Amino acid sequence: MVSEYDFWLLDLDGTLVDVQPDYVSGVFDEVGDRLGRGFTDREAEIIWHGLGGSRNEQLAEWGIDVERFWETFHDVEDAQARAEHTYLYDDADFVADLDGPVGLVTHCQQYLTDPVLDRLDIRDWFDTVVCCTEEIGWKPDPEPVEMAMRDLGVGYNGHQGVLAGDGPHDIGAAWNAGLDGIHVERHGPHRRGQCVLGDHRIESFSELGSD
């Protein structure tokens, strides 16, 4: 399957790396204290991993002011602490062996992404890194994907590309940009609360093989 594609784009959090649960619970405890509304471990997991779909829709369903939540969340988060609690999935090192252009397209902000790439020593895996913003757009918007493609110098004529990620927004972004989408299911549909479609559905990159 790997050799089917001329270039690869990948999501970061939940796809190649993840964060230790104690860090997540600590962040949500502090956010909850500031908002005056506590979060259970399950609620923190749902928002952190985007289980069940849109984080903003879920927050609104719980009666939480979305803008205030994210302002508080980003104020609480410490980039270095997050990097120190971030680990690489065992199967993620397949990226280092990919031939052809490889890019990262992540919702994780630049100030959080950079320390993770540096601490885990994986920056050289990627030929471009695109961190989504309000200006660039958020997956499933195709613009961040198309920006990465421009950076890589690949287009639609004669190039077959793929985007791999752990969430439905990753597959949506791939399809909206005209690419194949690989869904990497790190949680299972029962824990996620839904089944995510994709051109390929895997639980580990080791399932891809080398052909």
Automatic annotation (TrEMBL):
Record's keyword terms, sorted: Hydrolase
GO molecular function, one term: phosphoglycolate phosphatase activity
Pfam families registered for this protein in UniProt: HAD_2
InterPro entries (alphabetical): HAD-like_hydrolase_sf, HAD-like_sf, HAD-SF_hydro_IA, HAD_2, HAD_sf, PGP-like_dom2
Hydrolase as UniProt keyword: yes
Any Gene Ontology biological process: DNA repair
Keyword Hydrolase attributed: yes
Superkingdom of origin organism: Archaea
Family listed: Belongs to the HAD-like hydrolase superfamily.
NCBIfam families: HAD-SF-IA-v1
Protein name from the UniProt record: HAD family hydrolase
